Please model this.
Amino acid sequence: MKRLSTIIALGAVMIISGCTSPSLDHYNNTKPELDIKEYFDGPIQAWGVVQDWRGNVTRKFDIEMVGSWDGDFGTLEEDFVYDDGKTQRRVWTIRKLSDKAYEGTASDIKGKAEGKTNGNAVQWKYQMNLDVGEKTYLVTFDDWMFLMKDNVLINRSYLKKFGITVAELTIVMKKK
Model:
């Protein structure tokens, strides 16, 4: 009986930890400071992988991005080329709400993406209609970006369904 209660407790901890997210406050005063308008202005080259819940790489891709801003309104054009030869285009429309808050929309995003910055980090939260094979799933993204030196940005996304991480996405970006 004690072993069963231990297994149940461990299961509960795993479920609860799967529903939590790191705090953006952890990145107070970290350098270099990430300015969304500055970084996503002009051409950016990126490379990424998608991993399933077991950690296996299921897809690799390259992205050519171009960002532009007019005041507090920005456009980010993303052109993906996947390892199987398929291509995809996503165009984000981004609006700066305050010094540390943004919102974004794109055709495959449900509602608005909410972005917040602090120090060298930005966190985006949104829901996306994600095509997987013949089906489309509504998936929640917990998207974290970290600015490194030399204009490198690392993006870690946790794709969640019912609060449980079902896949992870890693992208490395280099501003040209």
Remarks:
- The radius of gyration is 18 Å.
- The domain at 2-175 is CATH 2.40.128.20 (Lipocalin).
- The chain has one domain: 2-175.
